[in-house]
Specification:
Two copies of one chain form a homodimer.
Chain A lengths: L1 E5 L7 H13 L3 E6 L12 E5 L10 H7 L4 H10 L5 E4 L3 H12 L9 E6 L6 E4 L9 H17 L7 E5 L10 H12 L4 E6 L11 E3 L2 H25 L4 H21 L6 E5 L4 E5 L5 H16 L2 H11 L1 H11 L2
Parallel strand pairs in A: 1-2, 1-4, 2-3, 4-11, 6-9, 7-8, 7-9
Antiparallel strand pairs in A: 5-6, 5-10, 10-11
Helix pairs in contact in A: 1-9, 2-4, 3-4, 5-6, 5-10, 5-11, 7-8, 10-11
Chain lengths: 336, 336
């Protein structure tokens, strides 16, 4: 099991990325890093191999143009590594746009899938919720939302071991007529669809309450929602910490409570999920959280390896084609 | 100072609404309740007057059609009370759509304002942030977002006493080209506008971090964001509480910490802000939080009274027309 890792783009710098690669390698995952000269020292680490790479794509570049122009950029090479069968999955902690472009061009879409979507296991208390799209498509049509529902459900069943995952459509009210035109239409299509446990509309509050296993939305709303959820959890946790430092009695209380809060802290930390996965492609591509620490990088590599191990792509494709409705939803899109 | 209160639609029932009316009346606000027969007992309370009303509009009705058809519905009568000068402000804890329709038809829009927007002070740790639109317009054009920016800034200065409020545009990245077409265009227009402290794009995480005073978005994203933020704060607070009950030592810690958490709990409780205000009209209309308790109802009435007291409508209109840019933004819309 080999994971191709883009060695550029970790906001916390290369040393943190290297630390993450080491952690993942210690779990028995072969990590091939497309990174700078300074990375060569990593070759001494068991399970890590460095491919010196001098070109990369920055956050400020136009992703599609940059991926087309820079054939030797680290993220493009990582995608090619998977496309040509030398690695089972790719991971990049760099520009989300460049990673999506490199993966989409390099790995190509599953048959019938028109728009790949970025999915992430949202860190909420209790069980995680799979949210998609979190940024691949800022505008969508109803048919895309239907595809996201099938992609998310298939991934949830295949990789996250959720039995008959329930899927909710994110909008502004529970009633079927609530929301933008494409959302109302997607609700109608999903209500009639077979092969999916459509739970109807869900609202913003239902996401942290983990009311359903998979929440489907467009990439604009999903991106705002993901960052808002992470930011709110952090802000509340910080405010609780501040309260626990506000006077000596509260301090003692905080100290006694701290061990019990440890698992909640891990549950809510963005590093825990490791990143977002691009669904709908013929290969595994994981976009790491930009601000990931070493544990976050390692978890992104672990998530990619797990997806490859369980044949997430093949099983997602099979589940997509299984139900009549799934076939119908995808076939309709083919002609669009 | 008289506030017209729609006596129907409080999810927790009429008794909770009556309790809220009493609390507000105790502050010296005259509350005129358009409510059911059972409300008549309230007439004994100093400052509360009941106008028996038998018709109302439910959450399941089409708001615009219902407001047009039911001239004697409680929310329509409350709006008429303000339009005809017998009350200074209206409050409804019922259907948001019906309240918006009743207020928009009854109170009419300020000159130049094409789309009124629902604004709410979002409960985040530290200072509140004004978020709009949280549900009046699920689809917007760039020009609407520009208007929301001016409306929100004017309200923030006039009612919330924020000196030169900063305004951020909610989207998927900091760079000016990030987001949907209308957001990119609104960014361009606001960057060139005068008379407003435009702080550029903000992301989901910047809302709970209170990076700016006013956050502008469309009513779909804003509605999802508001409910998500409230839900996440509640979920994290619940999880902290659960941790504090998980073992005896943690229990003691929770007990010692509890007093210090009191103000945070109040800050984050949706009842604290009282509800959303419909900006851009010639009168004050507040939409209460559907699930409000008595304190939430009272705070909605207090918010409405405060808006009327400080002449929020007149000052917002004046601030809107003050800057050349504000005039330009509104004038452009007039011709659209």
């Amino acid at each position: 099991m080999t994971v191709a890792l883009d060695g550029y783009g970790a906001e916390q710098g290369f040393d943190v990325l290297a630390e993450g690669a080491k952690l993942a390698a210690a779990d028995g995952i072969a990590v091939r890093v497309f990174g700078p000269e300074q990375a060569l020292g990593l070759n001494r680490v068991e399970g890590v191999e460095v491919v010196p790479t001098t070109e990369w794509i920055g956050n400020d570049e136009d992703p599609v143009a940059a991926v087309r122009a820079k054939k030797e950029a680290s993220v493009v090479r990582a995608a090619r590594e998977v496309a040509e069968g030398r690695a089972e999955a790719m991971v990049s902690p760099g520009s989300t746009g460049a990673t999506m472009a490199a993966a989409t061009f390099g790995l190509r879409r599953l048959k019938g899938v028109q728009r790949p979507a970025l999915a992430v296991q949202v860190p909420v208390p209790g069980k995680p919720v799979l949210l998609l799209d979190v940024g691949a498509n800022v505008e969508v049509r109803a048919q895309h939302l239907v595809q996201f529902a099938f992609l998310g459900a298939a991934f949830s069943a295949a990789v996250l071991d959720v039995d008959r995952p329930t899927v909710g459509l994110l909008t502004v009210g529970e009633e079927s007529g609530k929301g933008r035109d494409e959302v109302v239409e997607a609700h109608r299509l999903l209500s009639a669809a077979e092969g999916i446990e459509f739970a109807g509309n869900v609202e913003g509050r239902d996401l942290p309450a983990a009311k359903v296993d998979v929440v489907v939305t467009d990439g604009f709303t999903g991106n705002v929602a993901l960052k808002l959820l992470e930011g709110t959890a952090r802000a509340v946790a910080t405010a609780v910490g501040d309260a626990a430092r506000s006077n000596p009695i509260a301090s003692l209380g905080g100290l006694l409570l701290k061990p019990a809060l440890g698992s909640l802290r891990r549950e809510l930390h963005p590093d825990t999920t490791g990143g977002a996965i691009l669904l709908g492609l013929r290969g595994v591509a994981v976009v790491g959280h930009g601000s990931s620490g070493a544990e976050g990088i390692a978890n992104a590599v672990r998530l990619a390896a797990r997806c490859a191990e369980v044949d997430a792509v093949g099983r997602t494709a099979a589940l997509l084609l299984e139900g009549d409705a799934g076939r119908g939803a995808l076939a309709a899109e083919d002609g669009a």
